[in-house]
Specification:
The chain is built from 7 helices and 2 strands. By secondary structure, it is mainly alpha-helical. The chain has 2 domains: 41 residues, no CATH class; 114 residues, Arc Repressor Mutant, subunit A, CATH 1.10.10.10. A two-stranded antiparallel sheet has the order 1-2. A hairpin with a 2-residue loop joins strand 1 and strand 2. The radius of gyration is 19 Å and the shape is globular. 13% of the residues are buried.
Length: 159
């Protein structure tokens, strides 16, 4: 469905670049909502799933700060999400010997077990949504999104 129809615009947009950006934003929103609905069934938020997912694929110790940089969120946000995950028994903070201010963060067995249930369902949704795209198309889409993010960051740096 076109963005003009989806937004029930009386007249079609005339600026194709603006229409492209609205499509990106709307698509991200729709995908995010679908993910949020799935995660909610397992008592998770999108942020909590992202933390669990990130921890699953780390190969070395990560501190809370390391995690925050990878998720691009504030330190307070990471602390809040980790507090909730820790209350649920899904992650644990491990004190770093010789440094009482830093904790490493790891999945617990329970966190791994939950992720093993949720991740395949999430991947199935992603594969279903992108079933009409071959690998080359996906790689081209990734490259185009990277170009857009780079240009947006450059705009921020130039001001």
């Amino acid at each position: 469905m076109s963005i003009n129809t989806e937004l029930d615009l009386d007249r079609p947009m005339r600026d194709v670049r603006h229409e492209a950006v609205l499509n990106i934003v709307r698509t991200a929103s729709v995908l995010g909502q679908r993910g949020a609905d799935l995660f909610r069934r397992f008592g998770l938020t999108e942020a909590q799933f992202n933390v669990l997912f990130s921890l699953k694929y780390k190969e070395r110790n990560w501190s809370q700060s390391d995690l925050g940089r990878r998720l691009v969120v504030t330190r307070a946000s990471v602390t809040s999400v980790l507090d909730k995950l820790e209350e649920k028994g899904l992650v644990e903070r491990l004190q770093v010997p010789g440094n009482r201010r830093i904790y490493h963060v790891d999945l617990t067995a329970e966190g791994q077990k939950l992720l093993d249930k949720v991740e395949p369902l999430y991947r199935n949704d992603i594969h279903e949504v992108l079933s009409g795209f071959d690998e080359e198309t996906c790689r081209n889409l990734i490259q185009q999104m990277e170009v857009i993010r780079t240009r947006v960051q450059a705009l921020g740096e130039s001001k």
